[in-house]
Write a structure and sequence with these properties.
With about 180 residues, the chain is an alpha/beta fold. About 45% of the residues lie in helices and about 20% in strands. It contains 6 helices and 6 strands, in the order βααβααββββαα. The chain has a 6-stranded mixed beta sheet with strand order 3-2-1-4-5-6, with helices on both faces. Strand 5 and strand 6 form a beta hairpin. The chain starts with a strand and ends with a helix.
Length: about 180
Amino acid sequence: MIRVYAPKLVPGVLQTEAYAREVLQSGFPPKTDDERDRLLVTRLERAHILDDFESPVLWSLFDEAVLRRPVGGPATMCEQLSHIVDLGESRRMRVHVLPFDVGLHALLEGFVSLMWFDDLPPVAYVEGLKTGKVLEVPSVVRACQAVYDHALGDALSHRKSLALIRSIAEEYEHAQQ
């Protein structure tokens, strides 16, 4: 099982090619086209983990800012959000949104991914600017899980989250015209 919280960008495993291309070429220092393309291929290959309907079970918790930040423009965002809706509607993943009107919430500080395995203890992965860290100490992982669960309690339901994401995708679609 993977539970991920995204405060600013769609997590890499869920990114469409156009969205990922924009993210990968926006970094500093700038990457060459070849470097960007190598990273893009790796990112898109990693997304194939979602091809197996049963494993892993994926829950995504998005801050509303992820949905409203126009990465790559309206067409890219419409495609990206539609992809998320498709995954959620196919029951491939649970989707929850922390709307702006929640205000402060337990995960506002940053990205976290919680992972459970069949044959290993659970871990948490936290990420910041130019850094990421795998946390393995059981008490720390449990604390991260508790914070995630607390924020999840403030989020919209799966059904309402999909409706919001669909609505924002339609706004991007109309902005293209």
